[in-house]
Structures are given as C-alpha cells and as structure tokens.
Write a structure and sequence with these properties.
The complex is a heterodimer of chains A (243) and B (252). Chain A is of the alpha/beta class. Chain A has ten helices and nine strands. Chain A has helices at residues 42-49, 70-73, 91-99, 108-114, 130-142, 160-175, 187-193, 211-217, 223-233, 238-242, and strands at 4-13, 16-26, 31-35, 57-62, 76-79, 148-152, 179-184, 196-201, 204-209. Chain A is 36% helix and 24% strand. The chains are: A alpha/beta (243), B mainly alpha (252).
Chain lengths: 243, 252
Amino acid sequence: MPVAELSGVTKRYGEVQALRGIDLSIGHGELLALLGPNGAGKTTAVRILLGLSEPTSGKATLFGHHPASHEAKIRRGALLQVAKVPETLKVREHIELFSSYYEKPMPIAETIAAAGLGGIENRLFGALSGGQKQRVLFALAICGNPDLLFLDEPTVGLDVESRRTLWAHIRGFVKRGGSVLLTTHYLEEADALAHRVAVIDRGRIAAEGTPAEIKARTRTSGLEDAFLAIMHENGNAPEEVLQ
Amino acid sequence: MTNVYWMESKMELRKMARLRQYSVSTVCFPLMFYIFFGLAMGSSIPHGAMSFSKYLLATYGAFGVMGATLYAFGAGVAVERGLGWLEVKRASPMPPAAYLVAKAAVSLTFGALVVTLLFALGAIFGGVRMPAGQWLLLWTALVAGAIPFGAIGLAIGSFAGPNSAPGIVNMMYLPMGFLGGLWMPIDVLPKALQHFAPFLPSYHFGQIALAILGAPTQGSMLVHVETLLGFGLLFAGVAWIGQSRDHEKMYG
C-alpha cells in the first residue's frame, strides 16, 4: 500500500484550474521528487496531501486516512515555505515544542544531531544564518519521528554548501526508512536525491519515472535537458520554462 | 507526552517576553500614563468623592489589559498567519485550540502583570486604600477583561495583513482608550463624544471597573457586562469567518 496517494485530484481556485487530474503515489521508503516550473501546481498538490486545502474533485489519502486527520498528522512531518518563523525562541525550544505535538517523538538530542544543529541549539532563531534556519525547519519536520516527510522547496535560496548539507540530512532520513515527497525546481536536486521523479506542468503529470528513465525517454543525458524536452513537448517555450 | 497546551503556552510566553516591542511597550505605556495623569497631577484634583489616583487605577488597568490582549492576538495572529507560520502549525499535529490557549495565556499573564504593577504604584505613591476584597475583585475583573478583547484581537488578526496589523491595532487601541473614558474620566469629554462612547467595548470595560471601585458610573453593571460579552461573541464570529476564508487561498 502506498504511504500517500492522490487519485484523480483536481483543484480549482475561482477561474484558475491549478490541478487538472493528478494521480500520484509515494511508496514506502521512497523519495519522490515533484518537479515543475513555478505555478505548475507543486505546492497545491502538497497542500492537498497535507489537508491544508480540499481537492475540488478526486481523493487524497495518507496511510489510508484523510490528510487532515490526526492519524495522518502524527505520522508525517512537513517543511513548508514560510516567510517568517518566530525569532525569539531558541532552536532547542522550537524543537521541544514541536516534539510535544507527537506521541513518540525522537529524543531532542537525536533530532538536533539528525538536522546538524549541534552547537547552535541554544541560539535564538533570529540569530541564525539562512542555511541554519532551513535546518531548524527540517528538524521540526523530523522531530516527531514521522514515516513520511514533505519537503516543499527546502533548499530554495540557499548557497551550495548549505544545500549539500541539507541533502545529506535528507538522505539520512531516507536511510532510516522514511519516505519523502520533495518538490523542487532544482533539477540537480531531484537527480541527486530522488528514486523517482514526477514532472508536473500546468496541473498535469507530464512524465513520471526514475531519473534514468526520464532521461532515456527523452534521449537526453542530463535531467535538465530531459525536463526542457518534456516542457517543450507540452508546448512551453524554453525561455518560459527556464526563468 | 508532555501536555501540549502547557508547552505551547510556556513557549508563547517566552517568545513574547523576549519580543521587546511587545513586552516593554505593553507594560510601560499604561504605567507611564498612570504616573503622568494619576499620580503627577492627580492627587490634588479630586474627582467627586474620589481621588484621580484611585479613579484612574481602574481605567488604566482596563487600558493596560486591552493593550496586552489586542497586540498579542491582533498583531500576533496577523503576522503568523500572513507570513506562513500558522500554516506550518496547521500542518503539524498541534491541536488548533492550543494556539489560541497560548495566546490567551500570554494576554492574561501580561494583563495581570500590568494590573499588579499599577496597583502597587497606586497603593504606594497614590495613597489608594480599599478593603482587600475590593482590590481582589477589581484585579479579577480587569484581568478577565482580556477574554472579550481577545476575540476582538483575533478578528483583527484574521483579516489584517502582516504589515498593516500593528498599525491597525494602534488605530483601534488608542482611540478606544481615549473615547471610552480610560485616559480621563468620561464626563470631562465633550458631550458629542460621550454619546459615542457606549458603542465602544472599552467604555463598558471601564465602567465595570469603576463600578467595583464605587466611582460614579453611567448605566447598570449588568448591561455593561452583557454588552461586553456581546462584543466578544460578535468578534469571535467575525474571526471564525476570517479563519475559514483563509483556508482557500490560491497557491502555485
């Protein structure tokens, strides 16, 4: 049984059709990357799987439960795009608070280690660098010892080194048996981390498979070229996709 | 599992206490006003049978509680909602009520702190004397006033944008204090403004506190309590509408 599933999901906001019938499933222990240009519907799909938004039609389930149910919530963690996190709490306090939401959280020290926050756990959030802040959000996502992790563009705006560090911690989570849904528009990121890639464009899944399969399908050597080829098949101008 | 409600409240208190723009201004403004109007010039100008220092203890207490609550809920919720933090909380297994309980805990704690400090100032420097039961009743009534104002703050927080919310709270808080008769006795205001006062929740809050002191008040205590509760329920409804509207925002 997949840990998360979208079947025939559409989402309409007034006049805008954000999702036009999406089928997607994440298997146990799998890291699925949802790839697509801005506005393709990645965040909408994530929000529906988190129960923050209801699909217009179709069905979303997590572990066989409704995504907004408590049963689903205690088995997942989420790193979302957030403009401002409370800055006057210490790293450790943020983690203690989120850990208290779960029934069987990881020990605080373990969470701090798994997110690479050793040595800065007593700093105020507001005093951290961009990379450190993202790692705190990662810590909040994994502190409950979840089976499934949602990472919505986790490395956007980070420098190369911070990005690589976060990747290492994401790989650590998968190695411990966790499943991940990662959205990104960094193709390199999908290539480096994902077992499987789903390319989403204008509210539809345009291609799906392992990074190697996607490259083979479009007869390209890099995921970036494959991505451009798929977008082109879908009738997007390349400069539109790349911006 | 540690109790989530306790943990959420504890962390919210630490967070707000460290946020100087909240903790310092919430506590200092009412105390400063009371020192200026209630103590520095007050003692020599008797207001009817009651000294200014005693009369204004009730009204600045109401003013202080109102501020602690409107900022914690109004500005606090608007910023966290508008800048995505509330979404992170909603995606987590936090019971939604814990969020409101924590904001209420902050409002009550800071409200209680302001009232206690005002009482100490009044008793030590203003020569305010009353029976222990009356002190206690006044303290309780003032601190409990955080509840209806929490609903008003929540309504602001559910509609206002993250950048405009602090300004909107100021625009409501200061005029409500002045026009509701919390800065100076309502009967020194021009008549036209006095007629307007009953439309303000701050006026009813002030009148309740003054009635406990035995100061001259207008209307009946029961009506003031009912009106304040009515305001609370009305704005709780407005906040509810704002929250449900928020769930279906557009995302890419």
